[in-house]
User: Which sequence fits this backbone?
């Protein structure tokens, strides 16, 4: 008995009880439908997130120094650096192949009290923060734009201030006239001393926060005075460095390399990996719901096939008498069960695909109504999902058919022929 | 002339376990059937005639003894050999026809060929030829439900002939037919035996049906009771 005849016979046997066959495969349809909708949602959302991450720049790697563990005796002291990001390190990294840029960053915001004022104007000063967001932009906010001049000071003694500071310090109404004006940062230490640092404004950003941007060296100078440690750069190094690699592959290979050198490394890739893991768990959970439906469906198929054996006992006996082998009968019943499963899988896949299109339209409409500027496809059916859906449908049918098929194959032809 | 003997059974026993009692369906049967012979097996129910038929057809295995079909001993043959034997060398005809309801007449006839792996065009050609032979050439595309009992049995006969078997086994082939149709079917079988040189072993409890055979084997209590040779001078005339 060849494959074509087998499939033709199995199909013709299924079509004699069309309603029963359809109802049985409906169980598989529900299961496959659930799996397809859930997984395509998982895949779609994951791809959207990946796209967002790609826009931010996965090729950025953030390197931080490693601090010694603090114990009870040292917990209120500044942490001891085990590995410092020294200027030499920065130079070393810059020399690595396929590196676009290495930006050292100093964070002067930790409990350092700093105010900005016009030179000599004690009456009016503003508490400020130093912007450390070099090259890292929040994807959900528009990146800052320069209103005048530049966004990053190019040399020491230069400063970029936000428009908020321009207005509160009354530096001028026309942003262009602010450029070139002198300003001072005043540090006041808890020990009662104070120190002023002079800068020239080279740019105004459109930020609504009280932010200034300094060069790394100027920032270090602020900290060196604050901690009363002129060698701060040598002992502590920069607070972190942003390494921009040429592409994702370079960034990926950079991470373990830097970790080996004893630095703490964070790349968006790591975050994305974590997100992927979370999505995997969600996908598995959602897939399990469909899996449960498929389990129930397989019981339905088994029931249908066992009933078919009762109905067709004499037929099985006849076929055996005129020369069907056990394996002929077994494969025939397995093929029938497999076809029920596959049929359910095909319908489930189609329904899942159509629902995905519909739900996506609803989701986009909802986002649009809520003015979320997100476009995209949240239900994606990649080729592997098609194969998975059809393969699973077929597999469920075949597995459910194992027992009935074995039972049909075992039938004694004489007994079967006597069956009423 | 041992090679003219198609079937030889030697001291054939078959016992069944029925609850706690053991039933001796066959208690030592020695039967020989020549090639091209039409033999009727008759006897009261429980005499073992169906058991003997099933054993010769390779559907069952003896408890003791041997069944030779040419040079194949069925009792010791592997399952695989028995399947091939049933498929390629034996044709079965049943009391209730046992056609597959979803298949057309020709597909039913071609079923043994399909199991043997023949190509569909070849199967159809052979099936239509056989249907012609049993007088149903115009019914090839009908399904069993659209055929009368006699027609269905003719389709079944054509199916039994599909693989050019050496042996046809018929179990009460006229049991579900009225007497006129039964006579037609028996005449058809009789002609096939003589024209095609097939061997036919038929189980029946109808004396009229048995009278179509060349030899009538009477069975009783699992043993051969007596063998009756049917005198048929008119048949000798037609063959002469």
Assistant:
């Amino acid at each position: 008995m060849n494959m074509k005849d087998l499939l033709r016979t199995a199909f013709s046997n299924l079509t004699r009880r069309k309603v029963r066959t359809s109802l049985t495969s409906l169980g598989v349809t529900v299961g496959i439908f659930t799996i397809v909708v859930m997984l395509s949602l998982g895949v779609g959302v994951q791809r959207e997130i990946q796209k967002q991450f790609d826009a931010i720049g996965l090729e950025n790697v953030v390197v931080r120094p490693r601090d010694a563990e603090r114990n009870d005796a040292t917990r209120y002291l500044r942490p001891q650096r085990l590995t410092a990001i020294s200027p030499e390190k920065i130079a070393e990294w810059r020399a690595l192949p396929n590196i676009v840029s290495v930006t050292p960053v100093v964070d002067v915001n930790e409990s350092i009290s700093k105010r900005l004022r016009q030179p000599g104007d004690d009456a009016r000063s503003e508490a400020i923060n130093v912007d450390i967001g070099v090259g890292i932009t929040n994807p959900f906010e528009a990146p800052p734009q320069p209103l005048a001049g530049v966004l990053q000071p190019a040399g020491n003694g230069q400063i970029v201030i936000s428009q908020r500071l321009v207005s509160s310090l009354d530096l001028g109404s026309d942003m262009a006239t602010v450029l070139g004006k002198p300003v001072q940062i005043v540090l006041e230490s808890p020990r009662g001393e104070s120190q002023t640092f002079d800068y020239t404004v080279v740019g105004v950003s459109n930020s609504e926060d009280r932010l200034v941007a300094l060069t790394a060296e100027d920032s270090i100078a602020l900290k060196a005075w604050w901690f009363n440690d002129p060698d701060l750069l040598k002992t502590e190094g920069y607070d972190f460095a942003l390494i921009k690699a040429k592409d994702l592959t370079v960034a990926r290979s950079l991470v373990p390399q830097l970790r080996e050198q004893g630095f703490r490394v964070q790349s968006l890739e790591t975050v994305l990996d974590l997100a992927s893991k979370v999505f995997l768990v969600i996908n598995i959970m959602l897939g399990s719901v469909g899996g449960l439906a498929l389990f129930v469906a397989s019981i339905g198929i088994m029931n249908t096939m066992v009933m078919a054996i009762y109905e067709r006992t004499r037929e099985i006996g006849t076929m055996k008498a005129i020369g069907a082998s056990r394996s002929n009968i077994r494969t025939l019943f397995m093929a029938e069960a497999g076809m029920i499963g596959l049929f359910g899988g095909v319908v489930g896949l189609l329904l899942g695909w159509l629902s995905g299109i519909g739900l996506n339209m609803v989701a986009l409409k909802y986002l649009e109504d809520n003015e979320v500027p997100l476009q995209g496809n949240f239900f994606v059916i990649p080729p592997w999902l098609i194969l998975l859906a059809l393969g699973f449908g077929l597999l469920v049918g075949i597995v459910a058919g194992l027992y009935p098929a074995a039972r049909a194959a075992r039938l004694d032809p004489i007994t079967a022929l006597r069956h009423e | 002339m041992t090679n003219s003997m198609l079937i030889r059974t030697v001291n054939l026993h078959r016992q069944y376990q029925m609850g706690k009692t053991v039933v001796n369906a066959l208690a030592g049967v020695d039967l020989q059937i020549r090639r091209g012979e039409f033999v009727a097996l008759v006897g009261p129910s429980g005499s073992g005639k169906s058991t003997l038929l099933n054993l010769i057809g390779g559907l069952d295995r003896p408890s003791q003894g041997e069944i030779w079909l040419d040079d194949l001993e069925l009792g010791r043959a592997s399952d695989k050999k028995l399947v091939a034997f049933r498929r390629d060398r034996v044709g079965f005809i049943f009391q209730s026809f046992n056609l597959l309801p979803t298949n057309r007449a020709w597909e039913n006839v071609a079923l043994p060929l399909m199991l043997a792996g023949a190509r569909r065009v070849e199967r159809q050609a052979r099936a239509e030829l056989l249907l012609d032979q049993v007088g149903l050439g115009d019914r090839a595309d009908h399904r069993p439900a659209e055929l009368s009992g006699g027609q269905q049995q003719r389709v079944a006969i054509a199916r039994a002939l599909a693989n050019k078997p050496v042996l046809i086994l018929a179990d009460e082939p006229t049991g579900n037919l009225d007497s006129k149709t039964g006579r037609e079917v028996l005449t058809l079988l009789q002609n096939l035996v003589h024209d095609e040189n097939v061997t036919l072993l038929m189980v029946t409890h109808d004396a009229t049906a048995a009278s179509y055979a060349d030899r009538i084997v009477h069975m009783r209590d699992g043993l051969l009771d007596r063998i009756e040779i049917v005198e048929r001078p008119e048949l000798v005339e037609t063959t002469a």
Q: What stands out?
A: The helical segments of chain B are 49-56, 79-88, 105-116, 120-133, 149-161, 179-196, 207-210, 233-239. Chain B touches chain A through 29 residues (CB under 8 Å). The two ends of chain B are 23 Å apart (CA to CA).
